[in-house]
């Protein structure tokens, strides 16, 4: 179910959008625009990318950290994210260093230098990656910076060309959030409540996957302890199969309060919360979606960077887009309608209007005219 976008340019409304979503995923790929800008813009067409800097760098009411991936979170989450700081740092250390964290003196030197000089990025530190282990291996200083960030000793002060600039957490995270103490049980309780509130109804696995900050066992324990606040519901998936899930007892009222979705077509970021859980997406909407950026070109069903198309409360197709800055143009190499949907004049006009809105958001002057839809590829 989709609400109408909030057309406002106020940073407060952008923060409210992030609060409602819980988190906004960050991604380095900018084929059209960065994922976090696209996700917020989809719900608030008055959003402009400069508002991100306002919230992160100036107002300090959001912070960056890691759930399933790098993400932006509202500052109100920080007291309940303390265990996640430890969990992510421990996982990072185990992956890169094994049992013992090396270069403790390097870590101290980095912290001291940032304390004296202010925010720094990995390029400010000399060093060379050891590519003998992995082709994607980063230099020791970059690994140290990320470890210190994940552990909460450093925080992202701002980004420039998507490069993180780190500073001491005490200079970034306000003391009102940093000094709040929450027990592990309180953190788990808050994370589970917040997940099911945003999902509406969910299986135990979906609750766990929402933040990826609690274990499956912890979710099961939480469900038993909070059974009086919840109810078991049966839902029917897109194929007609019935499965069990959990919801708050006020689910009916929550559904009744939703406004009717418009028939506007929306171009959705591949990292949008509505499509992030690919299994849930396919089960509820019958939309089989995978991003193919890491798939060899010869094996792709669709294209390199393909966006889902949401019309009202249905996923009706997908579209490949590219920004050509030299030509000041948004290119539309191809688009596809899902089986069962036709490309009437009205649908193509709706898609053209959405492309025009997106072009305005990313700041390009012209847009390709929507071509006829390409044949939907047959699964081999």
Run of helices and strands: HEHHEEHHHEEHHHEHHEEHEHHEEEHE
Describe the biggest sheet? 5 strands, mixed
Q: Which overall shape is indicated by the principal axes computed on the Cα atoms?
A: globular
Q: What class, by secondary structure content?
A: alpha+beta
Oligomer: single chain
How many distinct beta strands? 13
Placed side by side, the strands forming the largest sheet appear as 9-10-11-12-13
Give the uncertain stretches in residue-range form. Answer: 1-8
Tally the helices. Answer: 15
The amount of beta strand, in percent, is: 15-25%
The chain-level mean pLDDT equals 91
Percentage of residues assigned to helices: 25-40%
Radius of gyration: 22 Å
N/C terminus separation: 32 Å
Model description:
With about 375 residues, this protein is an alpha+beta fold. Residues about 1-10 have low confidence and may be disordered. Strands 9-10-11-12-13 form a 5-stranded mixed beta sheet, covered by helices on one side. The protein has a 3-stranded antiparallel beta sheet with strand order 1-3-2. It is about 40% helix and about 20% strand. Helix 15 (about 345-360) links the parallel strand 12 and strand 13.
């Amino acid at each position: 179910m989709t609400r109408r976008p909030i057309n406002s340019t106020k940073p407060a409304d952008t923060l409210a959008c992030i609060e409602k979503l819980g988190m906004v995923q960050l991604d380095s790929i900018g084929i059209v625009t960065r994922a976090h800008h696209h996700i917020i813009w989809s719900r608030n067409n008055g959003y402009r990318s400069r508002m991100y800097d306002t919230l992160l760098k100036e107002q300090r009411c959001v912070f960056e950290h890691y759930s399933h991936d790098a993400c932006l979170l509202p500052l109100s989450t920080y007291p309940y994210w303390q265990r996640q700081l430890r969990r992510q740092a421990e996982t990072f250390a185990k992956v890169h260093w094994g049992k013992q964290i090396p270069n403790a003196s390097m870590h101290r030197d980095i912290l001291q230098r940032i304390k004296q000089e202010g925010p720094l990025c990995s390029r400010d530190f000399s060093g060379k990656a050891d590519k003998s282990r992995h082709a994607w291996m980063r230099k020791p200083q970059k690994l140290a910076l990320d470890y210190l960030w994940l552990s909460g000793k450093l925080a992202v002060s701002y980004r420039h060309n998507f490069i993180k600039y780190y500073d001491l957490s005490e200079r970034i995270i306000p003391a009102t959030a940093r000094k709040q103490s929450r027990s592990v049980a309180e953190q788990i309780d808050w994370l589970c409540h917040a997940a099911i509130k945003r999902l509406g109804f969910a299986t135990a696995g979906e609750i766990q996957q929402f933040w990826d900050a609690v274990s499956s066992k912890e979710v099961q324990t939480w469900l038993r302890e909070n059974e009086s606040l919840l109810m078991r519901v049966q839902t029917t998936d897109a194929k007609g199969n019935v499965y069990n899930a959990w919801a708050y007892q006020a689910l009916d009222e929550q559904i009744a309060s939703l406004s009717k979705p418009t028939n506007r077509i929306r171009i959705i970021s591949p990292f949008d919360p509505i499509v992030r859980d690919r299994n849930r997406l396919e089960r509820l909407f019958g939309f089989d979606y995978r991003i193919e950026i890491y798939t060899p070109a010869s094996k792709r069903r669709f294209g390199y960077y393909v966006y889902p198309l949401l019309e009202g409360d249905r996923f009706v197709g997908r579209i490949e887009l590219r920004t050509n800055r030299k030509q000041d143009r948004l290119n539309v190499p191809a688009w596809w309608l899902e089986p069962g949907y036709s490309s009437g004049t009205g649908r193509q006009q709706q898609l053209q209007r959405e492309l025009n809105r997106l072009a305005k958001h990313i700041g390009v002057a012209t847009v390709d005219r929507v071509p006829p839809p390409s044949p939907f590829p047959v699964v081999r």
